[in-house]
Structures are given as C-alpha cells and as structure tokens.
Amino acid sequence: MNTTLQQDLKDIENILEQVKQQGIDFLNVIDSVPTSTQNKITTNRNLNDSGFGAMSALEEFNQRLAPLMVSQAGPRYWGFVTGGATPASIVGDWLTTIYDPNAQATKAQGGVSALIEIETINLLLQLLDLPKSFLGGFVTGATMSNFTCLAVARQWFGKQLGYDFAKNGITAPLNILSATPHSSSVKCLAMLGIGSQNFTKIKTVEGNREAIDITDLELNIKNLNGKPFILISSAGTVNSADFDDFNAIAKLKEKYNFWWHIDAAFGGFAACSPKYKHLVDGWKNADSITIDCHKWLNVPYESAFYLVKEQHKNLQIETFQNSNAPYLGDPLENFSYLNFLPENSRRLKALPVWFSLLAYGKQGFQDIVENSVMMALQLDAFITNDESFELLAPTRLNNVCFTLAGEHNQEKVNLFLTHLNDKEKVFMTPTVYQNRKGIRASFVNWRTTEFDVQLAIAEMKASVLELGIK
Ligand SMILES: *Cc1c(COP(=O)(O)O)cnc(C)c1O
Question: Which Pfam families match (predicted)?
C-alpha cells in the first residue's frame, strides 16, 4: 500500500473525528452563514506529485474553499427549489459513503442494497399514498427521472406503431403534448432524440394559471385522429406551483390512447398534507411520475426517483437493458436496476431517504410541507400589502412569484434582485412570468422559520430604499 494511504488508514479515527467536529461547527451556525459570495477561487491549482494525506488536504480545503461555501442548505436560500439535509438524512448519506455498496441487483451482487432501495420506494409510496402498482428507483435528480420516464414513454409510443425505437432508433415522429413543461423535460426531449421543439403546446386554463386547459387538450387529442401520444403534465409548476387537473386527465385516459407522465418534482409532496392532498387527486392513474427527494424531502443532493407502472416493465427493460454482458443474466429473471434506468454502477441513494422516512414518519413530512406553505404565505402577505411589490401569481403552495410594483420598474427587477442577493442574507432567483420579469422565492427547506421570513422582508425593504425604487 502507498505510504500516505497507509498513514491515513492508521489515522482514520482522528480524521473522521475532525470532520465530525467541522460538520457540527458548520451546522451550528448555518443560519448566519452567507447565502451567496462574491469571492472566487482560481481554478488552476497544480496537482502535487506525492500526496500529503487527508488531514493536509482538509487544511487546504478549510483555508481556501470552506470559507466560500454558502448556506445553500440553510433556512434563507429560496432560489430554485432548494431543500436542505435533515439530521437523519445526513446519517444515511454518511453511511452510504462508509459502506459504499454498488446498488444494482437483488441477487448475484453479494449484498442487499437493491432490496433496501426497493423497500425505500415502498415507504415512499406509503408516504405519498400511491399504489404498489408503481415500480421505482433512484436517479440523480428530477431531470434524470423525467429522462427515465420519457424514455420508457418513447418506447411505448414506438410499440403502438409496431416499432422498437430502442433497437432501431426513432423511425417515426412522436406526438408530445404539454402545457407548461419544466425546462428539464424539454431538455429530455432533446436528449431523447425527439427534439426540444417537437411538442405541441396546449393552452393553459384562463386566468392567472399555468395548468393545462382540458378543453384545449381534448381538441388537440382529436386532431391526432386516434394516433398515440405522450402527455407531459405538471404537479407543481416552478413559478406558481400550479397543478394540472389529474381527475380530468384520468377521464381522458379512459377514452384515448396515451402515455401519461407527471412531473411532480416538488409538488408531489402536497400528498403529505390533508390540506393540500387534493392537488394531486387522481395522479395514481398516471403511467409514470417524477419526484425529487433533494427538494422537499430534504435529503442531500443527488436524490430523486422515478415511478413507472409495473405493467410497463417490459418496455422499461427494452429501453435500458444492459444484458449483452452474459454475467448479468436474464433481465426478467434477475432483477437489477441497471436494466431499468440510465446508470449502471450506482451509489445507494435510497439510504438517506430510508433514514429520513423512519426518523420523521408521515407526521414529520406533513409538518415540513405545511410549514413551508405557511412561510410562503407570510411572504405573500407582505408582498400583497407593501406598495413596492406585487404578486405575479397567486401563491398556491410553496412558491411566491412576485415583482416590483409598476410597469416602469420592470427594468429594475434584476438590479433589485442582484442587490438583495448581494446582501448575502437571503437568496432568490429571477424568472419571467407571463412576459413580465419577476422573482421567485421557493420554500422547501425544513429549517425556515417566521424569523427568517421577517429577516428577508427587512432586507427587501432596505434594498428598495437603497436603490431609490418608487
Ligand atoms: C427541480 C425540478 C426539476 C429538475 O430537477 P433536478 O433535480 O434539478 O434535476 C424538474 N421539474 C420540476 C417541476 C422541478 O421543480
């Protein structure tokens, strides 16, 4: 063994002790760590010939890099849709690294990590009140989950016309319908060879809505004259957290032949609360669903899962099978995740989720979801009552989409946001909503309290004054 490695192995107790203490120290002050930084690093460090061991690497990290780490996992990082990491999820994440299994097969792998993953999916189905007719697995994020689901949908579409796209490539144009697809679904259409522009945009419901207009949807379906299609629907759009009407879509599914995919990256967690559960009513009838865990479930990146109905198992294997390696066996006989999703070797991403679900239970996640919505409504109340701001969309769940009041301030929106973010107390992201420049604050972090909302409001007011916005 290399001598530095040998030294590190001997010193492992001390090394992990240091890291544990550093973790505790950071988590103890995460509330006051800046939410952004304007400092940069030079990225051209030379690689040394001989290593100097984990402790020295840690020293350099602490000197050069750690001070630039922002509080993305903290209570006032409201940009994108950013969750944090609960204590139990950190335990699961650390242990995933320690045990470092390759989560693939239930047999012939020498371990049970794939079974832990299946158990975790079953726990998630219970949390979200979804039927066991869904089979699922973990991928890195909702983008990869959308990719996995839409890849199976693509294979389904080919089969309807008698083609095998997985084997022969795309030999017929696909019909894709969607109203407000997340940018990642559009990216998936590009990655899947379908083409990012090759979808039909369905109208949204009249009024300030992003949900699909069911009448327009049916009109477009009729225009297809009985041809199959793929519907990409939304449980929680990123700007206004709007939900498609899943009961109405389920009714259409009785009449027409289509693959129904739901992107429920964060909105799926509405199912955790009796107050918001109605938003996903009927979603169990979908063919596939995308859900992120590194958002509202508050586990560390990278964690999301796909759900695909078991009846489509063969289509999924046709899409992803890796069975030309003889030692992997028959994909129908020997279950292995590598025949069901893009990756082959995989981290046991299920473990942080498993720990979280056991540690906090249904009640824990109901509380997180309801608290997030309450915090969103407090910010909403401020914006509604303050003359410097106006809402762009009603706050339906956990996302607040707003702007500076008045058309004349449209060019100042980005200036205001940069100014606010540069104060490093709260972080939000820019958006464009119905052709107006706006700002989004998304609440999914388990730590956020009323105090944080008040602190952010104070910074917003100060920014308006400092910039002289009227
Ligand atoms: C965040 C998000 C995605 C993309 O998820 P990643 O985890 O960043 O890949 C897709 N769809 C929706 C609705 C999202 O909110």
Answer: Pyridoxal_deC
Residues 305, 121 contacting (CB under 8 angstroms): yes
Number of structural domains (the chain) is 3
The boundaries of the domain holding residue 248 are 90-356
**Residue to substitute in 82, 143, 183 for testing ligand 1 pocket (most ligand atoms within 8 angstroms of CB):** 143
Q: What is the pLDDT of residues 54-112, one digit of tens each?
A: 999 999 999 999 999 999 999 999 999 999 999 999 999 999 999 999 998 877 667 88
C-alpha 154/C-alpha 436 separation (Å) is 35
For residue 248, report the distance from its CA to the centre of ligand 1, in Å: 24
Question: Using a 6 Å cutoff on CB, does residue 265 contact ligand 1?
Answer: yes
74 located within any domain: no
pLDDT tens-place string over residues 207-239 = 999 999 999 999 999 999 999 999 999 999 999
Is the beta carbon of 266 within 6 A of some atom in ligand 1? yes
Q: Which residues of 149-169 are buried (b: 16+ CB within 10 A; e: fewer)?
A: bbbbbbbbbbbeeebebbeee
Q: What is the dihedral of CA 342, 348, 352, 353, to 10 degrees?
A: 50
What spacing in Å lies between the alpha carbon of 13 and ligand 1's midpoint? 38
- Do 333 and 416 sit in the same domain of this protein? no
In a domain? residue 239? yes
Same domain, 257 and 367: no
Statement to judge: residues 331 and 384 lie in one domain: no
- Ligand 1 centroid to Cα of residue 62, in Å, is 31
Q: Is the CB of 149 under 6 A from ligand 1?
A: no
CATH number, residue 397: 3.90.1150.10
